[in-house]
User: Fold this.
Amino acid sequence: MSQIFDLNRFLHLVGSHFRKNLKTYLISCVVFAGVTIGLFVLVVSSYREEAIVAGKQFFVYLIVIYAGLFIFTVGVFQPFQRPREGPFQLMLPASGFEKFLLGWLVSLVGYTICANVVFFVIRYAVLQYYAAQGYEVSGFLDYDRILFQQNGISMAWVLAAIYLFLHSFALYGSLMFRKMAVLKTALALLLVVLAYWVVNGMLYRSLFQLDIQQTPLLPLMPLFLQGDGMVYQVDIPDWPYWLLALSIAVMGLLWVASYHKLREKEG
Amino acid sequence: MVRLTDLSFGYRNQPSLFSGLNLSLGVGHIYGLLGKNGSGKTTLLKNMVGLRSPQAGRATVAGEDTAKRRPNVLSRMFFLPEEPYVPDQTAKVFLGMNSTFYPQFDRTLFGGYLEAFEVPEQRVLTKLSLGQQKKFMVAFALACRTKLLVMDEPTNGLDIPSKVQFRKVLASAFDEDRCIVLSTHQVRDLDNLIDSVIILHGGAIKLNAPLDQLTSQIRFGNVSGADTADILYGEQAIDGTHAILPNPEGASSKPNLELLFNAVVSDSGILLDYLTTEGVR
Assistant:
């Protein structure tokens, strides 16, 4: 029997995990559905027009799916942090890799499938309700401003990169912080993003003698410079794919770091 | 079975707890690990089972490094902490979740232990009293029938009848293929249960010896004022001096663990010197 991965042992671990957490997951789905409904109602009622365009739907989607991913993932390894439960989980006869893989699959694959199913079921119900009220509703994928840029590069790659980065960061936070892990991880993320903006802004200003319209949100994104009444765009061809490659490298490092953190965790 | 070799450990920003510690434990014994509060008993046990990684040296079980926490090693040992974890579920669900990880787990034995401890099987575990939760986990730990069973302060939180029951159940669960290590700072709780004693003091194993070997070399008894010349260690009491004496005749006496512990951790090294001379330590 392999000491790294054994399918039977892993299936036992999966079974044990779901027997313990199924009730919590079901309640979480209900809460997720409730928040989605609430946000839809809030977004729709905040506009005077009687239309639910794809952009509004996409806004709700991004908020609930990304925030849900972050909160759920930060919680996935929290049992290992609890003073009583931690030693029990660490001593459970399964390998560190199997325990990590379970947490990774549940928080990334499991969550993504469940959250999307719940979101689209709720979206369908909400849109049916508003359509009956005489609202004009659009299809979800009609929002080409987000999904497709004018030059044809899909922004979905950028959103996927952010999604995966958020997951890897949250997973590391789950193993890093014992208490108030969601808050601390969110704060750490905020500090990382702020530090990036500040340092990157200083770097750009030292490189170019023109006004920078806005420091790019993410690395490798186009830079817009203003000077002599002109606006210049500096970008790398196919930058979304480079961004995706960079994200994969960063999140790969974070996932590997999380695995080692779990393997070396002490109780 | 268990071997600690040149083990050193200390918590971050704190003085070292152990340095170059060596210990060897075999199957067929119930060891009592005794030590004062804060002497490092729990830390030593955690190093033993791999919950803490030594800064230097090794902790092995059946020749395998415990710090690596390989599944084949984990399935052969069970560590019961002083405050064990119980989930918000019934015993049946708990067993379904966890017993499959222990190939030797015996459901019948588990039921028997629960009955002996008078712990109801149908109730949600977190609704049980702390003592009952502990007894539940002791029953689970014993029913796993692992080669190595390590219990940290197992009698803490148990009432007097439960302590008696604990001793009976543990004695019945013990066999020659198992190694059981119990730690406590209440030495009387382990009376009539352990067959070997380990005393941890000042970051070192001061004594690691089978009780029968000890009692063949030393004798425990009460002595009056005139006969105190041979005493290795003594404590004044109302009925005379409770003493540890040399035992050249090999007379049998019931070991007084509390007295032995006090003798070992006292500043006087007479007893330990004597035991070293007699080849017991």
About this structure: The mean pLDDT of chain A is 90. Chain A touches chain B through 27 residues (CB under 8 Å). The beta strands of chain A are 51-52, 136-137, 211-214, 223-227, 230-234.
